[in-house]
Write a structure and sequence with these properties.
This protein is of the alpha/beta class. The chain has helices spanning 16-19, 62-70, 81-89, 100-106, 135-150, 153-161, 185-194, 207-215, 218-258, 263-278, 281-291, 297-300, 304-329, 333-341, 346-361, 363-376, 392-403, 407-436, 445-454, and strands at 7-13, 23-24, 29-38, 55-58, 76-78, 95-99, 113-130. It contains 19 helices and seven strands. Strand 4 (55-58), helix 2 and strand 5 (76-78) form a beta-alpha-beta unit.
């Protein structure tokens, strides 16, 4: 949401569409792309990319723009780097156009892929993103960048982390900043090539080894479980329970309005239900979390956590309302007529006789909806939560993003199963109990009175 953060710093490349929404500092790096392909691929360079090939990119990146606008190709778009890389390793895509630094950090020795070519783009440099109206912060960052270039800090960090020659005609910082003094990276790379072992790197990993590292990395399980237990589980339960309360209260109101005799109550309830049941859950969460964020930022402190709860609760209400409505309408009309004959008003008959019976009949369906809500809480991940607000999925997803292994996500999935499997069996138990009724016991008052009359 606007103004939730002061600075964006994540190798953000400047583009014209981005300049329409945020301001940028001077550049501290240039756009550098890598082409990654499966080992033994017939694709040997960017010039070999052609229509009909499955070329992977991450959504919204300059690599996507490069493939679409420069190469005039239609790429396969993925939500994140780990997903596109896993698809490349499994040969579900033919190539990956990646940020060079991301590619070199992701490709590990023994992986069945290789980086075959690099290219650079000077049109869109890498800089810090700042709110357009925050010019003092932009000026301060530009001054700081020039200062670390002048004292050699930039050159030292650049040589350590991204050692590659600067392209002709480009330098970081403002025009007044000096040209950084960098070593001859090409000569260093040539020396390393000469001293490399003849084996040429690690042997390719077997399929079983790749599967074991992806799903059964026990060290990552040990690393993930404490965070899942201390952070992910409590937040998942908070999101689910709070949203369930909102859904139950609002759902009952929707159910009552939906069966009302007054059209001005029925139609709004119907429209609300149609909208919130018809839209995908992630769309609702993004529309409420990001769209309403600036409006209610004063109340929430620009914290998306309450908006995530509200979005989940509003979604749940649409489904719960229909469950309640079906339960209430399943009660025999004679129940209402009998209560009215005893002198109850319509509202009292509904509140004391019809609604309780209807709710009792739909308890299994309500429990199923609670399980669905528990799983849907993972979608709050899209709103961007701080570390202590992460739910189960995001805890596992963050460690997955850091390591590239799917083991943390498997660990998160096990926690979901620990929560949902007992609830599923509870639903089945409640359903059987409601269908069969309570078994009479020796102390059953009705059974005792009957036996006394027979004596």
């Amino acid at each position: 949401a606007p103004r939730r953060f002061d600075v964006g710093s994540s190798s953000i490349t400047t583009t014209e569409p981005r300049r329409q929404t945020v301001g940028f500092t001077n550049g501290y790096d240039f756009g550098y792309f890598s082409l990654v392909v499966p080992t033994g691929s017939e694709i040997t360079g960017f010039d070999k990319l052609a229509p009909g090939q499955r070329i992977g990119v991450v959504q919204g990146t300059v690599q996507e723009s490069y493939v679409v606008d420069t190469l005039k190709l239609q790429p396969v778009i993925f939500p994140d780097y780990n997903t596109v890389y896993n698809n490349l390793k499994s040969r579900q895509i033919d190539a990956w156009v990646a940020p060079s630094q991301q590619a070199s950090g992701t490709v590990q020795p023994g992986d069945p892929v290789e980086i075959i070519e690099n290219t650079f783009s000077l049109d869109n440099f890498v800089a810090w993103a700042v709110a357009k109206e925050n010019q003092p912060l932009i000026d301060a960052l530009n001054s700081g960048l020039d200062a670390v270039i002048a004292d050699g800090t930039w050159a030292q960090l650049y040589s350590e982390w991204v050692p590659r020659a600067l392209p002709p005609g480009w330098k970081p910082g403002s025009k007044a900043a000096p040209i950084p003094q960098l070593p001859d990276f090409d000569a260093i790379a040539a020396d390393k090539q000469d001293t490399a072992t003849p084996a040429g790197g690690a042997a390719p990993k077997s399929t079983l080894t790749q599967l074991r590292e992806a799903f059964l990395n026990w060290e990552l399980y040990k690393q993930a479980i404490p965070d899942l237990l201390k952070t992910g589980l409590p937040n998942t339960l908070i999101l689910t329970v709070c949203a369930a309360v909102i859904g139950l209260v609002l759902g009952m109101l929707l159910a009552v309005a939906g069966i009302s005799r007054h059209w001005w109550l029925r139609w709004p309830a119907r429209v609300y239900t149609d909208i919130f049941r018809g839209l995908p859950e992630v769309v609702i969460i993004l529309l409420i979390g990001l769209g309403l964020g600036p409006v209610v930022g004063g109340l929430t402190g620009n914290n998306p956590y309450p908006l995530g709860i509200a979005a989940l609760g509003l979604m749940a209400a649409a489904y719960v309302g229909e469950i309640f409505r079906s339960g209430i309408q399943s009660v025999e009309p004679g129940q209402l007529e009998a209560s009215r004959a005893l002198g109850f008003s319509y509202s009292s008959s509904m509140r004391l006789v019809v609604v309780p019976q209807g709710v009792r009949r739909v308890l299994p369906a309500l429990m199923n909806q609670f399980i669905s809500l528990l799983k849907a809480s993972s979608l709050v991940y899209f709103l961007g939560l701080v570390a202590n607000q992460r739910e189960l999925f995001q805890v596992g997803r963050d460690l997955n993003a850091q390591t590239g292994s799917l083991s943390p996500l498997v660990a998160a999935g096990l926690f979901y199963l620990i929560l949902t499997v007992p609830l599923t069996h509870l639903v089945n138990f409640i359903d059987r109990r409601l269908r069969q009724g309570r078994k009479p016991s020796e102390e059953d008052p009705l059974a005792l009175s009957t036996s006394q009359e027979m004596i």
